[in-house]
Write a structure and sequence with these properties.
alpha+beta, 7% strand
Length: 215
């Protein structure tokens, strides 16, 4: 399988962690979106939206990280532990995945991307959206160690990639006790955490050069 990605990207890292959990080997191909490599005709042919991550499995091209996660576990999972077939358990995982995409990860982009692109300070209103998202996640995790059920699932893997990105970007999650407890445990039980951390270190170096200096 060809995997088009960038190590610093949270969605890309979620797929890498799942790959480790499933024992899959990817033929990794870096796409430097900062230099516009995603706009090359050969890549646009694979993915008209020219986004990463993009996976090509024996000629089948799929993008959007959460769609990739579901595809891989349904095709290559040895059991349904990471994505149970039970409709209610699966619905809860799906809800958390959509929460990650539409609320948690989105709040990162809303707050940090203008800083990357234009070098201006983050908008306090967008910071409030981050706090709101973490407040929701803290509620989801009340009394449990996993975000969707009583064991590791796709939801944990996707959200771990996102939350670890916030941490590296300087967001303090320790005030969210449930999230912080989950985060400490997730690092220990999630396959591929080491590679996720390697990507985070690359992201951290990039952030140090792209984020405006704090006065």
């Amino acid at each position: 399988m060809d995997f088009y990605y960038l190590p610093g990207s949270a969605p890309c890292r979620s797929v890498i962690m799942l790959g480790k959990a499933l024992g899959l080997e990817f033929n990794k191909k870096i796409v430097n979106t900062l230099e516009g490599e995603q706009l090359k005709p050969e890549f646009v042919k694979l993915n008209p939206q020219h986004t990463i991550p993009t996976l090509v499995d024996n000629g089948f091209s799929i993008w959007e990280s959460r769609a990739i996660l579901v595809y891989l576990v349904e095709k290559y999972g040895k059991n349904d532990s990471l994505y149970p077939k039970d409709p209610q358990k699966r619905a809860l995982i799906n809800q958390r995945l959509y929460f990650d995409m539409g609320k948690l990860n989105k709040s990162f982009g809303d707050y940090f991307y203008p800083q990357f692109r234009f070098g201006k300070p983050g908008d306090p209103e967008d910071l409030k959206k981050i706090e709101e998202a973490f407040g929701f996640l803290d509620t989801f995790l009340e009394g449990q160690l996993y975000v969707a059920g009583n064991h590791l699932t796709l939801a944990d893997i996707s959200i771990l990639a996102t939350v670890s990105t916030f941490v590296v970007a300087g967001i303090d999650i320790t005030k969210y006790q449930n999230v912080n407890r989950w985060y400490e445990n997730a690092q220990k039980v999630t396959p591929g955490w080491d590679e996720n951390w390697e990507g985070l270190l690359q992201l951290k170096k990039m952030l140090e050069t792209m984020l405006p200096a704090k006065k």
